[in-house]
Amino acid sequence: MTEKHGIAHQTTVPYVPEQNGVAERANRTIVEKARAMLLDAGLTKAIIGKTPEELWTGRKSDLRHLRIFGSNVLAHIPKEKRDKWDPKAKKLLFMGYCENTKGYRLIDPSNYKISKSRDVVFFENQERKKKEIKNENSANHFKITNDENVEKEDSSTETENLDESEQLTKEDGLSDDVKETEEIRSSTEDEQEVQPVRRSLRKRKPVVREDYVSYFTIEQTEENPMTVREAMESPQKENWIEAMNQEYEALQRNKTWEYVKQPKDKKLLTTKWIFKIKHSEKEEPRYKTRLVVRGCAQIQGIDYYDTYSPVVRYTTIRYLLALAAKENLAISHMDVTAAYLNSDLQLEEDIYVKPPEEYKSIQHEGKVWKLKKTVYGLKQGGRTWNKKLDEILKDYGLTKSKADPCVYQTSNTRDRLIVAVYVDDHLILSNKQTEIRELKEHLQRKLHMKDLGKVQQFLGMNIMNNSEKGKIEIHQKEYIEKALTRFRMENCNSVSTPADPNIKLTKEMGPKDKADIEEMKNTPYLEAVGTLLYISQISRPDIAYAVNNVSCFCNNPGKAHWNAVKQIFRYLKGTKDYKLKFCKNANTNIVGFSDANWTNDQDSRKSITGSVFLGNGAAISWHSKRQRSPVDCRGKICSVSIHVPGSVMVT
């Protein structure tokens, strides 16, 4: 047909689905919508059954009877199925519509029975608790029994009262219940009897509200597979296969191992695949995999000795950016591809690794890897890589800074060249583009490097370099927005301060009873505090005190502590556009401020010290911390605060 109509037929290259972008994008959109619906309902793909075929009439479908998938419902139990004093309705979940009859398809989350009913009351706006259904790949089965109406529940089981304020909606146009039995694969055990549960002992679980459907879509879109199986079952399967092949070929190309027979007196280490999707504003998402060794099984003194490996400090990065604004330095960014694999230093220890199942070699059946070079996951891997990079930079004529061991520079102040290293990320600053170009060429001769050009993002901070106006700005707006979405605070109301000055947090505000303990167990307090600590250390000195305060209660947080954490997020919501702005014409002298309050810690009566160092118009270094010991007068706290170390200088 194509030849007849003069159409050139082309196919996509294997493993390159992006060549058929329109179809792939449409498939992805459909999958994301379905995934969000499942997660919003608190269910998994184990309950997915057959769906009706779409009618090809060309007429727009009538959507008046459509209901939210996974909604809570009350299904009527006919009097023939219950005793006089039994509940008249049963709480189920809405799964869809019957294929061959006018009725609703419902599921009981306690035993996974599917039933059909006409008389149903919907609670579409009500909170939905998460119900977990195990993987469907098990060989076990359970039956779906569709009676004329919903089977009656055990008479000893209570029916939860629903909020009277919720709007009740009922469909009267659906009728004609039909008996039907079918079988669905599931990993559940045989049907279990529903046991009565005392309401007073029922554990509270986190709820999933319909307002966060978009949250689930975003979260799952950016989710990284945890296992090879998850990667192979994902829509991005071909991308992950290509990334795994590239990683394995890189390991082979670098001659990372040799095949040997397993020594009887040596313990084998195992491997694990790490999957990561890297997003960029200007490029398509990059799929990266890493084959790592489980170094947690290594024994000190046998498998490794020294492990220390330095990284550049955030304070140093900010100081260098202030220096770049002052002297109008060009800033470039480079990344080392598979950094640890570039190290050609032989390991001091003999380490044997079991090859991954996905790449077992028939030629080397029964043999194992003896590592010749470092790989990710080894405890000594970072140290070995740092030694290698240190030699390369010193061979070029750079000297290591005394203030920060991960900063290298030339001794010639006229032709300034500075390199800051954070594992495999390199920040290069110079007043001459030729200096940067020559260093890049030197590094690319020695290592597998990727030139990222003018720096835009480094260590989680967005960098905006406007050399014409002589200013450099750093911010974390994107990270803050993702954090707000992650902790379901994207729709919160903003506040003007990160902490309420009228509330003094104490340990006594921890959980008071079992109900409070259970509720706080389901609160992501540690994750939220960790996220806020990261933000406060990178670009937001204005929340340092508030974050330091809430971090003191991580062992036993209560509702008041959690409210204080949410207060910080609300403050960030209204100030996410705040930036640190280093200007060429601003005060170039480093100016420091330090102060402390007196016995402000309500539990230990220790004083809290705060300090900030400014340069070129913005904060370079800051901190807020409790003093080590209590003091008995205001003069002493000021003396202690003055001696707190401040910013780091490049010397």
From TrEMBL:
Any Pfam family: RVT_2
Compositionally biased intervals (Acidic residues): 148-166
Region: Disordered, residue numbers: 132-199
Taxonomy, superkingdom: Eukaryota
Cellular component terms (Gene Ontology): DNA polymerase complex
InterPro entries (alphabetical): DNA/RNA_pol_sf, Integrase_cat-core, RNaseH-like_sf, RNaseH_sf, RVT_2, SH3_retrovirus
Single GO BP term: DNA biosynthetic process
Residue ranges constituting the Integrase catalytic domain according to the UniProt record: 1-86
UniProt-recorded name of the protein: Gag-pol polyprotein
